[in-house]
Amino acid sequence: HGFDVEPTPDTFSLYVSYMAAYINPRSVSTYLSGICHCLESTFPDVRQARLSPLVKRTLRGALRSKGIAINRKLALTPANLRSIITHPCTNENYIDTALFHAMLLTGFFGLLRLGEMTAHPTPSLIDPMKFICRASLQVTSSSYQFLLPANKTDPFFEGNRIIIRATSDDIDPYHPFLNYIACRDHEFPFHTQLFLTSHGSVPTSRWFLERLHRHLPPSFGGQSLRAGGATWLASIGTPTDVIQ
């Protein structure tokens, strides 16, 4: 196009306008970060051009004119959990049903992301270091806990201990989890992973969502566990800093 090779606020602004016509403007900012990373060794001032007022205003305008609303999944409610637990699929393997219920309640009460309990659906992207280990599980008379080895805010695998306490409600997570562990240990006593399907493999997010959508519409998804648990805690008066 005859532009100057050296990146300037003008060329970045034109780039934003061009790309926003084809992709979500929220992704353009990420593209610019990648461009700056690649060009910084040759053009040391590239980040100053990226952060110029002109480029910022162009990005803001692209979001207003071309932006797409974020489609958030609905939060699970105790009524949803109650409906799922009391109406299990009759044609499914017992271990898979017990696993699904254990993951559903653990994710809800532990505010876990679905990806923290499942394997990546693409085999080449599976990272065994992120799997929760059976050996980390500790069970008491009123709770169970395990080590979450990593999450997306913990890149150095320092881990976090997740504690799930028994409740007096009919959607108590404690007993369904113990039921699953009994089945799992009977079938796969030498496997190291905590969550295992009837085939002895770590469930994928697709595996979990397929069963979730047998009970609920697609407006619910993996984010519904964490969002539902946080919303439920807020509804019973849990302080915001405790939820965080």
TrEMBL record:
Q: Name one GO biological process term.
A: DNA recombination
Q: What is this protein called?
A: DNA breaking-rejoining enzyme
Identify the domain of life.
Eukaryota
Q: Which residues form the signal peptide?
A: none
* Protein keywords: DNA recombination
User: Which organism does this sequence originate in?
Assistant: Coprinellus micaceus
Q: Per its UniProt record, what InterPro entries does this chain match?
A: DNA_brk_join_enz (IPR011010), Integrase-like_cat_sf (IPR013762), Phage_Integrase-like_Recomb (IPR052925)
- State any single GO MF term: DNA binding
PANTHER family found in the cross-reference section? P CELL-TYPE AGGLUTINATION PROTEIN MAP4-LIKE-RELATED, PHAGE_INTEGRASE DOMAIN-CONTAINING PROTEIN
